[in-house]
């Protein structure tokens, strides 16, 4: 049995996975903040899954946001969790006596989506949440690039006179096509900014229509960049804003179809058929983390 954990800003989502790939059990607890709390709650989830299934685990995979050294298991920087320079992988491995693999949360979600959707070949998972990033998977194995930065598409500048980005550049894709971009462009609205924006646009609010269309165009640019530069077979839309479902997918495909009518090159890419929605009813990141566990895992000291 392998165990996969998705450590997020508010909760840790853990799954126990059988050799067949079937999810045996699932446990969720609050994450906490700071190294001690995060480590304690991580171990709590793992031990709970072992106890509930009555099956020992052979390896553990962990997905976590921030700057991660997947070779050593160190979390270099995860500001929302209060973690900086924490040897999370080695600490969990020593506590449990099993191999542990730690990976960026978008990467494990990409792997989980490929597994859940039975996608082989080169695929991209475009995570649209507070920020914007992609995970790349080839035949259900992660492709990290030469320095581990493959998929950092949110920090590609697309507007020379655009807004400042947290990365220090201006006009990055993340300033146009992300949850934080929508919160900036559509401020002061109760509840989910994205849902509220799309509701208002559907009701005919001209300002909301302009903001929505700019956001959709930004997501379309991200998909185009991934297809043109990496030539992935498909781009799977995931992350918090994937809950928009067809309300996002339909205008996105309409954008591609309109561009294809005036550009033979864009038409040749077949973008409308290459963009998919990730399932929202499965723990993709935790599932993907479980499938990272056997590869290059960090052994206990």
From TrEMBL:
InterPro entries named in the record: ATPase_NBD, ROK
Pfam families found in the cross-reference section: ROK
Stored Gene3D superfamilies: 3.30.420.40
Family statement drawn from the similarity comment of this UniProt entry: Belongs to the ROK (NagC/XylR) family.
Protein's name in the database: ROK family protein
Organism: Curtobacterium citri
Lineage: Bacteria, Bacillati, Actinomycetota, Actinomycetes, Micrococcales
């Amino acid at each position: 049995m392998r165990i996969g954990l998705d450590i997020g800003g508010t909760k840790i989502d853990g799954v126990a996975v059988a050799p067949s790939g079937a999810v045996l059990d699932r446990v969720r607890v609050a994450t906490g903040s700071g190294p001690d709390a995060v480590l304690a709650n991580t171990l709590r989830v793992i031990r709970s899954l072992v106890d509930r299934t009555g099956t020992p685990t052979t390896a553990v995979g962990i997905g976590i946001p921030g700057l991660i050294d997947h070779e050593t298991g160190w979390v270099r920087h995860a500001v929302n969790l209060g973690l900086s320079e924490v040897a999370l992988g080695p600490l969990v491995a020593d506590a449990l006596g099993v191999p542990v693999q730690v990976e960026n949360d978008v990467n494990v979600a990409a792997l989980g989506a490929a597994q859940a959707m039975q996608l082989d070949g080169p695929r991209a998972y475009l995570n649209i949440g507070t920020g914007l990033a992609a995970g790349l998977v080839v035949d259900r194995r992660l492709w990290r690039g030469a320095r581990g930065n493959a998929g950092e598409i949110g920090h590609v500048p697309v507007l020379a006179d655009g807004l400042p980005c947290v990365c220090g550049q201006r006009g990055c894709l993340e300033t146009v096509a992300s949850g934080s971009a929508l919160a900036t462009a559509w401020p002061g609205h109760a509840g989910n900014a994205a849902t509220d924006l799309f509701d208002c646009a559907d009701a005919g609010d001209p300002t909301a229509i302009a903001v929505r269309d700019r956001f959709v165009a930004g997501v379309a640019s991200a998909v185009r960049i991934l297809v043109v530069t990496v030539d992935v077979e498909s781009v799977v839309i995931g992350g918090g804003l994937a809950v928009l479902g067809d309300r996002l997918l339909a205008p996105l495909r309409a954008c591609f179809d309109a561009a294809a009518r005036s550009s033979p090159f864009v038409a040749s890419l077949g973008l409308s058929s290459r963009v998919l929605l990730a399932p929202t009813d499965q723990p993709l990141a935790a599932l993907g983390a479980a499938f990272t566990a056997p590869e290059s895992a960090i052994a206990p000291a």
